[in-house]
Amino acid sequence: MVGITDFFRRKKDGVDPKATEDIAKVVDICDGTSSCGSDCEEIAELAKGDQVYEGLKIDHEEPLYNSSKPPKVHFVVPTSQIDWEHDACLEDKSSVQYQVYQWCQKHNDQFSGVGKGQTLSCAVSSLPKDIMDVEVMRGTKNNVLVLPHFIWINGLESDKVDQTLGELVPKLLSPDLVVDRLLEEHSMLSRAVERSFVLVCSHTRRDKRCGVLAPYLKKAFDKHLQKQGLYRDNSDFRPDGVNVAFVNHVGGHKFAANVQIFLRDPCILIWLGRVKPTNVPFIVDDILVPEKPRLQWPEKVRCVQKYAAW
Question: Where is the secretion signal located (predicted)?
Fold first, then answer.
């Protein structure tokens, strides 16, 4: 395994001791000697993806830590797409994602001193939308995933976004939040059954680097998650799996590939940059599989956030 481990570090990548200390307060940092359990065929396939990575112009000079802001609440809207217009959430003013994005922009300052994290944010994703629902196909209704709370808002209509989020977000950010009670109070809410969501930026029309790398990462995640019994496709609703989805622009395309990992039970977000296909088996085995995640590369961390347990 020495050969594959050598792929993971570039001499220019680095992290200062203070950043490493901050990261270690949220997630354990391991020494990089763990084995990913990849076979020779998988290693060769991953290495091909790394060759593509090495051919892209990636910034290895700027330190990654604190180059992104962890969300207080992150809304993820299904679109069944893997790429979008430049301003993905603003394509259609009548859409749910437009209204959610605008609501977040208007209320960020209002909630600046409440809860863990720094921002209210919205993304569109490759998660499947209900193509049998006319209003969903028009964009005026959709289910919305709420992270890090692992809650779905079901059937949210675009003209009800202001009212719904105005009632819901203060409760989500309250230190007294009890999710079971919240679900009883709001019939349109349900729990997401996944143990984690892995969101990979694939926004080609915004920057081709993420668009080029995202399919390689998705394939690597899916294949290695299958070995661990954690892979879930869109028709597999068994609980405690891992859902890997594409999302639009997250910022920092020069740090591609960007990967946001939301873990349910530790209530942690780990946001990584400069992720290569050969990193993926170690992300699965060290972060997604264990009850207590471990991290090999503090130099790849853009931000981490520990949230309250609900």
Answer: none
